[in-house]
Amino acid sequence: MSASPPPDVAVAAQKVQSWLDSQQRALTPDEIANLSPADRLEYTRARSQQTSMPAWKDPRATK
Fold first, then answer.
1. Where are the domains of the chain?
2. Could you write out the DSSP letters of every residue in 6-18?
3. I want to staple 35 with a disulfide (CB 3.0 to 4.6 A). Which of 29, 40, 47, 53 is the partner?
């Protein structure tokens, strides 16, 4: 069994999680359709960077 965090820590974690969720919210297709072409391009670039995985690095090359 895992111990639950203190109440103040749980409240702070919930506030942080709700802020993160609001920052990373994906736009609906209707919202994307209403964007200007430049804003649509910027949105898709930012979204693809958020969802793509970082490049793999060979750990043996760090010598």
1. 7-51
2. PHHHHHHHHHHHH
3. 40
